[in-house]
Design a protein that fits this description.
mainly beta; 6-stranded antiparallel sheet; 42% strand
């Protein structure tokens, strides 16, 4: 019979090590390490791992646990200073657990790092987790057991607003730091209520507060201590008969602070000097609200506070269950006290329900950091604390309000924050780790977590939540062994439901999940999976999972070869449409730097020995930048230094190996004679006899009929060339498998095997 040629010119199928080498597809390979198949019709050696970026922190850096990098976006460049730059920025936060502290280093859009910009714990190194929304970063203790007693969640954002208009900055209570250009602010996420509220009226017996505008006592707590940004004082002054709808009686009051324009604290309910009297029916009344606080420092109003509310209820008929009704909304940003519904637009300055902030008069008692505002109130309002907020003011907690609190993982979805395994004050007033709980915020209020807003799933099941993510109106809540998918498409949490539960799809930590435009990808010892909003797909069906220790490309071996604590990590390269799976992010193990890469364009896997550095600690993966400049980045911690590395899928000189399928030339029943092999390639270096072969499915490339092809590869200066591989005598075989091993940079376009089938059946 005449000679024939068997051509291999497609490699995009990638690695298939679950099938017998003879049964893999023609465009697949039986084994490969450090080869890429991301370009259809090409096979090329990969570059040596990740490429260093131009910027890393300058101080001593360490990582506790995993999940230590985050990207958040702001309209302002982060510089930890007070100069406004509205050019916009994508910032990187790094959880730096150096020595006995847990601090956050922040890299602004200009590439400059601000070391130790945020302190989550000043006395202990703890793992940290981040979430961001509306330009603000939140940092918290992510310890999987109880959070450290000194940890406190932190809020970092840019604040630029004029408070108490008509009161000059620097004279108090205006906050001089945020007036004008504004500044970056870091403080706790706590929504603390006021701690001072006194009321007086000029007609009743409640004279603690009066209408002497420069009287020192009007700006104090009743015991000689000034307000110092801790609350407001209220005077109810003159009554106007037949001008309103207020009815006679005694009314007690309570107050709250408003943070960030929309997050209201719980109420402060004073126990004394807390009642005003109305002496007639159908009246309106006027009065003053007094404020006091230094322009900066501990005695200033928190820069996050934008106002407050004062509530009332009848002192004689109101019980503990009687709702607190809105008396007035105090706006510290725009000058005014609003005594109509806060949903009603502000009216003109001349109107009777609107005035302007005025500094305390000079002289008198020298209250230089005070101010006041005049108001007129015509009648009771319909709004209550609960109708305005959606929860009762009697809750024990609505925010992270003490040390020793935090969460394991977080995700922002549908304008809410979902926190996995929070340490948070519960309904009984106790704070401890809730391993089976997902805590969620109010809509658009990313620090407001009423302790009734939770989902307890799989209670006392021997697992705890380890990670949480979201896609297509679903929350994916992972425990160690189980995945719960919760449908949160409804705007009302009463209509949410557990959509499905999946045993064997849990993960061991936050780095094991990543969000992509195609869905949530996650990894565990069973494989790599993608949830696309409707179903879970196993991407690793072509990879063996037997746990054979000698086979480093065995998926189970790949995950478990670094000790009993499995900490795989997965990243997404948006630019290249690829997933990268790292064997282990924690230090230790001789194989922790191995990786698998999945290409969505080709639907294929490749295996990479030593793609990362064995034994080093790594952060989670992030994507940083936009468009063509977007990179997938990971942090590598070596010698107490953090090096940011980006993924660049370029060809390079590495130790690489490739084994083709076991080729039977379409008829396994016949013997064939193999004469030559022709390889189309290009390279920037030479290799001497890099090709070997095995016959008849033995996978033995040096014995049992196997051997070495004669034929060298030359440096082609990156120009395509053809190499001819021969043997001393033709090879007689049923099937042929070819191996290529190199330490250089090579790219293959095709391979052609010259053979002749014989009329001789396999015996």
């Amino acid at each position: 019979m005449p000679k024939r040629r068997w051509k291999i010119d497609r490699f995009e199928g990638g690695l298939n090590n679950v099938s017998d080498p003879r049964d893999v597809a023609d465009n697949e390979v039986a084994y490969s390490s450090r080869f890429m198949v991301d370009k259809t019709g090409k096979l090329r050696t990969s570059a040596a791992g990740m490429t260093a970026t131009s910027s890393s922190p300058t101080g001593a850096e360490e990582v506790t646990g995993a999940g230590q990098l985050a990207v958040w976006h702001s309209d302002y460049l982060f510089n930890a200073g007070s100069t406004a730059d509205t050019s916009g920025s994508s910032n990187i936060a790094f959880g730096n657990s150096t020595g006995a502290t847990a601090k956050v280093d922040i890299r602004g859009g200009t590439g400059t790092w601000n070391d130790n910009a945020v302190t989550v714990n000043g006395s202990s190194a703890v793992e940290m987790n981040f979430y961001s929304a509306d330009g603000v970063l939140r940092s918290g203790d992510a310890t999987t057991s109880d959070c450290h007693a000194s940890s406190r969640p932190q809020w970092t954002g840019y604040i630029q607003r004029d408070t108490f208009d008509n009161i000059d900055p620097g004279n108090g209570p205006t906050n001089a730091d945020i007036d004008g250009d504004g500044t970056w602010v870091t403080t706790t996420t706590t929504l603390s209520p006021p701690t001072i509220l006194l009321v007086g009226d000029t007609l009743g017996s409640h004279d603690e507060i009066d209408n002497d505008l420069d009287r020192e006592e009007n700006y104090q707590n009743g015991a000689g201590t000034r307000l110092n940004g801790n609350g407001f004082n209220l005077l109810k002054s003159s009554e106007y008969k037949s001008q309103g709808t207020w009815q006679s009686g005694d009314y007690k009051i309570a107050s709250s602070f408003i943070y960030d324009n929309n997050q209201e604290s719980l109420l402060y309910v004073p126990t004394s000097n807390n009642v005003f009297t109305i002496s007639n029916d159908n009246i309106a009344f006027n009065g003053f609200v007094y404020v006091h606080g230094e322009d900066t420092g501990a005695n200033a109003y928190s820069p996050r506070i934008t106002g407050g509310r004062i509530y009332y209820k009848s002192d004689s008929t109101g019980s503990a269950s009687t709702p607190w009704k809105l008396l007035m909304h105090i706006n510290m940003v725009h000058d005014g006290v609003l005594t109509v519904s806060p949903d009603t637009a502000f009216v003109t300055q001349e109107a009777s329900d609107y005035s302007e902030w005025t500094p305390t008069p000079a002289g008198g008692d020298n209250i230089y950091e005070g101010g006041y505002i005049y108001y007129v109130h015509f009648g009771p309002l319909l709004d209550t604390y609960e109708s305005l907020n959606g929860f009762s003011p009697g809750l024990k907690s609505i925010s992270f309000d003490a040390n020793g609190q935090g969460w394991v993982d977080s995700v922002v979805a549908n304008r809410r924050v979902f926190l996995a395994a929070p340490t948070h004050t519960n309904m009984d007033g106790d704070a401890h780790k809730n391993h089976d709980r997902i805590l969620y915020s109010e809509v658009g209020k990313f620090d407001t977590f009423p302790n009734i807003n939770y989902l307890d799933i799989g209670i006392d099941d021997g697992e705890s939540f380890t990670a949480v993510d979201s896609f297509a109106d679903r929350i994916l809540a992972f425990k160690q062994r189980t995945l719960y998918i919760i449908n949160v498409a409804s705007g009302s949490d009463t209509n949410w439901y557990l959509e499905s539960q999946h045993s064997g799809y849990g993960v061991h930590g936050t780095p094991a999940t990543v969000r992509t435009p195609l869905g949530i990808a996650f990894v565990n010892t069973s494989g790599c999976f993608v949830f696309d909003g409707s179903k879970i797909t196993d991407l690793t069906k072509k990879l063996t999972k037997l746990g054979t220790s000698a086979d480093l490309d065995d998926w189970v071996t790949f995950i478990t070869n670094n000790g009993s604590s499995y900490t795989p990590s997965i990243g997404w390269s948006n630019k290249n449409q690829q997933l990268i799976v790292m064997s282990s992010v924690t230090a230790g193990g001789s194989y922790s730097g191995n990786a698998f890469i999945y290409d969505f364009n080709t639907g294929s896997w490749t295996f990479h020995l030593d793609f990362f550095t064995d034994g080093d600690t790594y952060t989670n993966f992030i994507n940083y930048g936009t468009g063509a400049s977007e990179d997938m980045i990971v942090g590598q911690v070596t010698s107490s230094a953090l090096d940011l590395k980006k993924y660049v899928p370029a060809s390079g000189s590495v130790v690489a190996e490739l084994q083709t399928k076991d080729i039977d030339f379409g008829d396994p029943s016949l013997i064939k004679k193999i004469y030559n092999v022709y390889v189309t390639y290009r390279s920037d270096g030479a290799e001497t006899t890099p090709f070997t072969y095995a016959v008849d499915g033995t996978n033995n490339f040096s014995g049992a009929g196997g051997g070495t092809f004669t034929g060298n590869l030359i440096d082609t200066s990156n120009v395509w060339d053809i190499a001819t591989l021969t043997t001393t005598t033709p090879i007689s075989c049923q099937s042929l498998q070819i191996k290529f091993a190199t330490t250089g940079t090579f790219e293959f376009n095709d391979m052609a095997i010259e053979y002749r089938p014989l009329y001789k059946r396999v015996s």
